[in-house]
């Protein structure tokens, strides 16, 4: 081989400044010429070379965003917020399919047994369970990432809560459309759902992300059992008075949640306590 890359062109190549078609010729020549590759190694700034390798390593190690994350970023959501949001456990396919399957079976049972109270009892618990599974060290596999995220703990909780509620309420709404014969009664789950979710969140700083929703869900089931034993016809929580009470509880819990929002940034080792006050 009698032709080699000129010294000036080799320096431009090393700096990334060589333009086509000389760049193409240099690329082709360097793949087969050990002498020019050795000259190129001497011409490269070692600091710039190290920086280039670091950028390459960072690019190769960077996680590839999924479809949901890319869509959120396209709609204007910040990169780190989109990643924390899409890492929410209950927004994954397995949970969503499980919720959808449970609602389908419940709607079928309502049609077969003509008992809308079965659906009305279950529907408010699904968003509560979804929010409970979205935050806390024992249930969230991305909790460590959330702890070091550059945002207020309460804001992260609200971001995930809105996402979970949107998905849960959408599924519940679709199930409601499958019960048109019950009219407005089929929508009586909405206010209790908001009340249970808000109450569970308001109690989380004191009782923990597992115990708080568990107690709230247990209280809801107990209330339904008592109402069934003492009420003929429509259970009390789904009457006009019961709906008004649910709205009042939701409003009160929301106020309490706002007043205790700073406690979501108090993160002892292991996260929120499973019982007892912070």
Can you give a write-up of this model?
By secondary structure, the protein is an all-alpha fold. 67% of the residues lie in helices and 0% in strands. The chain is built from 14 helices and no strands. Helix 1 packs across helix 3 (34-43) and helix 12 crosses helix 13. The N and C termini lie far apart (77 Å). The model is unreliable at 267-278 (pLDDT under 50).
Order of helices and strands: HHHHHHHHHHHHHH
Total number of beta strands: 0
Q: Give the % helix.
A: 55-70%
Give the count of helical stretches.
Answer: 14
Walk me through the topology.
Blueprint: H1 7-14, H2 22-32, H3 34-43, H4 46-61, H5 67-74, H6 79-86, H7 93-113, H8 116-122, H9 125-132, H10 143-147, H11 153-177, H12 190-207, H13 211-230, H14 240-259
Helix pairs in contact: 1-3, 5-6, 7-8, 7-11, 9-11, 9-12, 12-13, 12-14
